């Protein structure tokens, strides 16, 4: 559908639609407000779509569990209503090169399990991310302007994997990283981290987490 430029407002007359695949619709710049009428929609694929903006009505997709928007779109911001997607489990915003930040409302997506934000020119993450208690995978690969992780990051008690590869400006892990008992994999290749925190080795929970310590020890040289 590379020549598709717009979707009809009548899209909203299909209330039973559960999956919408618009991948590679490279001429599509926006979605109709009626997209929010699809109360049963659980999967929305917008990969490599030339989106300029998302309608605020996207927050009405109360059953949405997967939203894939990775690719070379022109999104500069996301609507605050994104945080209304309370059942969302997977969100992929990789390669959204014009996107500079995430809305604070992202912290309201309590059921989010996987967040992919690779190769985006983001400088910081919202502090509200600490509210994503079910998050298990966070991938920030290639975010070369990211310097630190937000305060409260250690509240992600179910986080298992953190990917910071290629974050060339990233210099320091938070002191509380050793308190994250579920964290078993941290990928730090090609970052600016010179030394691991001395406190990491002294934290009891981190000592018990053999896999995590083995994954990180090569950085302590």
UniProtKB/TrEMBL annotation:
Signal peptide: none
Transmembrane segments: none
InterPro entries in alphabetical order: Leu-rich_rpt (IPR001611), LRR_dom_sf (IPR032675), RPS4B/Roq1-like_LRR (IPR058546)
Entry keywords, A to Z: Plant defense
Ranges of residues in domain Disease resistance protein RPS4B/Roq1-like leucine-rich repeats: 85-172
Record keyword Flavoprotein present: no
Domain of life: Eukaryota
One of the Pfam families matching this protein, by short name: LRR_13
Ribonucleoprotein found in the keyword field: no
PANTHER family, sorted: C-JID DOMAIN-CONTAINING PROTEIN, LEUCINE RICH REPEAT CONTAINING PROTEIN
Protein name as catalogued: Disease resistance protein RPS4B/Roq1-like leucine-rich repeats domain-containing protein
């Amino acid at each position: 559908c590379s020549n598709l430029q717009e979707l009809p407002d009548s899209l909203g007359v299909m209330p039973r639609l559960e999956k919408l695949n618009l991948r590679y619709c490279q001429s599509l710049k926006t979605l109709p407000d009626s997209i929010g009428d699809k109360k049963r929609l659980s999967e929305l694929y917008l990969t490599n779509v030339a989106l300029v903006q998302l309608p605020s009505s996207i927050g009405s997709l109360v059953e949405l569990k997967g939203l894939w928007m990775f690719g070379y779109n022109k999104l500069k911001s996301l609507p605050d209503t994104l945080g209304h997607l309370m059942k969302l489990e997977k969100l992929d915003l990789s390669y959204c090169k014009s996107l500079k930040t995430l809305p604070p409302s992202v912290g309201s997506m309590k059921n989010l399990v996987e967040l992919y934000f690779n190769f985006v020119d983001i400088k910081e993450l919202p502090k509200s991310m600490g509210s994503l208690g079910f998050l298990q995978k966070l991938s920030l690969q290639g975010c070369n302007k990211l310097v630190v992780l937000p305060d409260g990051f250690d509240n992600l008690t179910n986080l298992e994997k953190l990917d910071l590869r290629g974050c060339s400006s990233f210099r320091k892990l938070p002191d509380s990283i050793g308190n994250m008992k579920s964290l078993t994999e941290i990928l730090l290749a090609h970052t600016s981290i010179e030394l691991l925190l001395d406190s990491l080795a002294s934290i009891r929970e981190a000592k018990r987490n053999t896999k995590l310590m083995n994954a990180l020890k090569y950085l302590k040289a």
